[in-house]
Amino acid sequence: MTPPTTTTARGGRVTLKHVADHAGVSVSTVSDIVNRGRSGNYTDETQQRVRDAIDALGYRVARAAQELRRGRSNTAGVILTHSFENPYYARLFNELKRALEEHGLHTEVVVLNERRVETFRDAWDRMLSHGVEGLIVGPLYYWDEGLIGQLDGLSARTMPMVAFGAVEAVPGMETVVLPDKAGGRIAARHLLDAGHRRIAFLGAYAEADAEHGRGTMQEGFEEALTEAGLLDRQWLIQTPDSGRYETGHADALALGERWLAARPDDRPTAVLCKTDQLAIAALSAFDTLGIEVPAALSVMGYDNVPESGYTVPALTTVDGGLNQRMAELAWRLASLIGGGSIRQRGAVLQPPSPVVRRSVADLDPKDR
Known about the structure:
alpha/beta, single chain, five-stranded parallel sheet, disordered N terminus, 368 residues, Rossmann fold, 434 Repressor (Amino-terminal Domain), four-stranded parallel sheet, 12 helices
């Protein structure tokens, strides 16, 4: 038997973890006893230690937990691995929240500012303390081995969980794949069909991190250019995945300066950006350098965020069917949770499609 500790909250709100540390048990054990109505799975002695810790620390059970003890919390947890600095993820969460509400589920969200296992565990503990009935996690990519390993260990024994992202499967969980690879192919094909043969890609991963590109639009872009026999003519511009406009703007300025310094026959005629956020930053950077879009250089984004329709010129981009996929996520989690009337599944998921605006020009054959 592990002896209870004397850990207390130092001047702040007492959390489920404080109770667990004080009682010498795991956070999931405390959540089972306090929030999830599973105290019968534990000995009387363990239950008493948890109650004693609650009394000693003055822990206040959340309203959601009280509701859950009455039967249901009707709360879905969402752990996002990207911050809202990129407007795409704010839109993603809004669509997911709306879809969950259609199934009668409230939403508890944690946004990870760092993609570390320790940060994820803190988010997991918070979800348990709020008595969520199920969890959605993402977007996950192939370099997230640590997070995926944590999910593999937690999902089977705790609560219904659904993952989403570039990975095709997360062990022990249902997974909704975002079609970014297909979207990258579609974006590349749109530029090729417009006559562009020299295309820069802004947002590439470092060569040492080739695994990072699996399942992403960069992989689709490179496949399409390889099939066309043109990959060796492209500029792959590496940028950190910071989600900050200022970082994207600085990288786009560097690209523009390199473009100006190159011989005209070597310059790309188009730039495909990994995200609309990067594309918006690029439009500003190119304007600063006097590079006219699209007369001198076409720019294409990816994500179809609302802002993309209001840039100058309006941004040509790709719509990845975000609304449909968030509805699919919500439907899958609601179906796993059960216990109520589940609305019918939405429409069949559609492939990504280009959104044609003014930032991409068709080239005359003599200009290719």
